[in-house]
Design a protein that fits this description.
This protein is an all-alpha fold. The protein has one domain. It contains two helices and no strands. The mean pLDDT is 92.
Length: 62
């Protein structure tokens, strides 16, 4: 059964990557409203850390 799930997620991998890029841009834009001199690379690191934490939280609740 796990093979079927792998095939299915492979179909969506590109879309997932696009969604993550969109989230990074979205939250960098939001952060730049409050932080005019935003370091986008540092902001991206912080956003990715927050996304990872959210994923871990969601994963532990399933």
């Amino acid at each position: 059964m796990a093979e079927l799930e792998q095939v299915e997620i492979d179909r969506y991998r590109r879309e997932l990557e696009h969604d993550v890029q969109h989230l990074l841009k979205k939250y960098c834009r939001i952060m730049s409203w409050e932080v005019p001199e935003l370091d986008e690379q540092e902001a991206a690191k912080l956003i990715l850390q927050a996304l990872r934490a959210a994923i871990e939280t969601a994963d532990s609740s399933t």
